[in-house]
Design brief:
eleven-stranded mixed beta sheet, 4 helices, 11 strands
Length: about 230
């Protein structure tokens, strides 16, 4: 765990791929418990440490996770996430855009994409349609090309809605599955079991101090990330 920002009311940490944000049926130690231990030791707190989970990242995804350190911050952050007042930017490595399968534009300009997603709970997977279908939810994102290598493209993504596996599902629907994401059509897995999706940047007005907060994530250890950034 790497702390990227902290104050009396919030703490933002970098989540490694493979970590879970909150406890689940696997019984693995969640990131929330690791953060609690960090706070308990650093500030020598004698009793139970309060920590509120306000959003999550899929297990194979890396990047920034925001936690609340006070109940006041938790209530306000929950409302801010619900009302779209927390702006998150993601980076994703996908197959080369000019390979004939990918329907994404590679001109570096922002492009908006809309699908209707349905969720299969048993498969833990979403499916994208180009028109509304029963029990579907509208999903909208924006993307632009920001880097490339001989075999891959790096895109920046902004979510305009928050749906289950939205980025993974929509990019796959465009013929550009995220590197390593076997669930959504990638040809092979990443050696460490991750998918090449990074919660890179988070921006919001502090829920208590009202100061602007802008935090960027470090890059994952895989050198491919750094090598793809355009000058």
């Amino acid at each position: 765990m790497r702390v990227v920002y902290e104050d009396n009311h919030i703490i933002i940490v970098y989540k490694e791929s493979g970590e879970i944000v909150q406890g689940d049926k696997t019984g693995d130690t969640p990131l929330s418990e690791t953060v609690k231990e960090y706070i308990k030791e650093k500030y020598q707190k004698p009793g139970a440490v309060f920590l509120g989970v306000v959003h999550r990242l899929d297990r194979p995804v890396s990047g920034l996770v925001v936690f609340a350190r006070t109940s006041k911050a938790l209530t306000r952050l929950n409302n801010m996430f619900r009302d779209g007042e927390v702006h998150k930017t993601y980076w994703a490595i996908v197959g080369k855009m000019d390979d004939g399968r990918c329907k994404m534009e590679d001109d570096g300009e922002w492009h908006e994409v809309t699908h209707w997603l349905t969720r299969n709970e048993q498969q833990n997977k979403s499916y994208a349609y180009d028109h509304e279908v029963p029990r579907s939810k509208k999903a909208v994102l924006r993307y632009r090309l920001i880097g490339h290598s001989d075999r891959y493209s790096l895109v920046e993504v902004q979510l305009l809605t928050g749906r289950h596996h939205q980025i993974r599902c929509q990019l796959a629907a465009l013929g550009c599955p995220i590197k390593g994401d076997l669930k959504y059509g990638a040809r092979r897995s990443n050696p460490d079991g991750s998918i090449s999706l990074l919660s890179h940047r988070v921006e919001f007005i502090h829920p208590v101090s009202k100061e602007p907060i802008v935090v960027e994530s470090p890059l994952p250890a895989d050198p491919l990330w750094a090598n793809m950034i355009m000058d």
